[in-house]
Structure formats: C-alpha cells, structure tokens
Amino acid sequence: MDITQFNVWLDVIFTALYVFILAFLVFHFTLFITTGRFRKSFIEGHWPEHDSRPPAFPKVLHFTHMTSMIFLGFTGMYLRFPFFGGEGARTIMRNAHYVFMIIVIVVLVWRVWYAFFSKTNADWREFAIGREDLKSMLGVLAYYGYFSNNKPHVAKYNVLQKLSYNLFLYMMIAQAFTGLALLRWNVPLINVTVSQAMIGWWLGSWVGSAALALWIVRIVHYILNWLFIIMTTIHLYLAATADVPCALDFFGLEELKVVEGGHGHGHDTPATEPAPAPSAL
Predict the structure, then answer these.
(1) Of 69, 102, 216, 226, which has the fewest Cβ atoms less than 10 A away?
(2) pLDDT higher than 60, residue 268
(3) Entry pTM
C-alpha cells in the first residue's frame, strides 16, 4: 500500500467511525428519554450530585480553548478536504489554522501553569486519579450506560472526566508538537525550516528521508485531529444531556445546591424533602 492509498484508507476509517459515534449518541439519547432519565432530569429537576461552579479564570481559559479547538478541527478538515473556494480560501483557512494553533498552545501552557502554580486556586489535584476514583469507575460506566441510576460522586470530576481531561492534555501536547513540526517557515539565523529543525535531523535519518518523516508527522497530526473531533463531540453531547448542571454552573447560568458528604446521585429524593428523623434506638 502506497502513501496515497494509506491516506484514503484513513479517510474512510475515521469517517465511518465518526458516523458510528453519531449513531451511537442518537441511540444513547433515545435511552435517555425511554428510561425516564430525561423526565427526572429536565422536567422534575432531579440531577446527579455535582460540586459548585469553578472560578472564573479557568472557565475563560476552557471556553477559549474549546472554541479554538473547534475552529482548529474545522480548518484542519478543510485543509484536507477543501470543499469550497479556491486557492485563496485555502490560504485564508491555513492562516486561520495557524492563528488558532498559537492560541491553543498559549492557553494550554497558561492553564497548566495555573493548575500547578496559581496562588489562589492551584487545582491540579482535582484532575489526579486516585484509588477512590478507580473504585468508582464501574459505577460511573454503569450510570452512563443506563445499567444504574446511581452516579458515584467521590470528587469534583468523576473518573471518566478525569481520564478524558488527562488524555486531552497529552493529545494536545502531541498535537502541538506535530503541528509545529509541519511548519515550513524559515528559522532566522540557521537557515532551515521549523520542520527541518524539529524532525528532519533525527526522524528523517531514522526513517530514511526528511520527506517520509514529514508524512509520518502529518499522518499523526491528522489522526489526532480526528480523535479531538470525536472526543469533543461526545463531550458536548454529555454536557447537553447527562451533565447539564455542570454545564449551567460552568457558564454561570445556575448554581445548584451542593449535597454534603460527596456521595449520592440526587435522582430518587428531591432536594426539598426533609431528612428522616434519627432513630431512638
């Protein structure tokens, strides 16, 4: 199989995978309605327990990052499939891709610095996966898979959210590296391109040529782009269905009561129901 055929197979595989993901989300939303969870959540207002809204600054960074990632995904797919305009449109999209690339990298570095070194809210521990998170994994999977109406709550983010956020971080680092390694801008003073400076001297000699090294990096970048599109689609779907209170709190539209103790799901007992009296025995 030559390089062109491999590219086409990647297009076919990921397009089919994305169609499957969309079909599965439609099926999942059907279960959301037929199991009665839609009625309990949106009509009766019984949502799973969640913590209070995050501080403003991380929200601004997250929203900027999410918006930029959406534009990066769109412009990246356009550069692969230029479905409108001519060379002028392609140039505009490429430049837009570079702009959002820089924004994402800056915000990524800023957010990691904030997580570890903020004097007011160094929140890296909120994304760390501990023993209790791992113990709750089957319960969280059962809740999202409609095998249970109880959603374990052991931390600000559930274990699947923590796993996805950590995966996003590592993928963004890899995507930033591969994206920069594709640039053919000349580096001042040393008279080589960014691509040659980053991969040509080691990956090129390892695989046999700089051209092949560039193709490998481009393929990895393209695969990561698809994975970001898939994960972002799932993230937005869950934010609009199963995790609406978190989304409302995130955008400051509503603040729901935090249940003491860090456990429970809030589906079976309305928040206004009085607690049972202690037993005399």
Answers:
(1) 102
(2) no
(3) 0.82
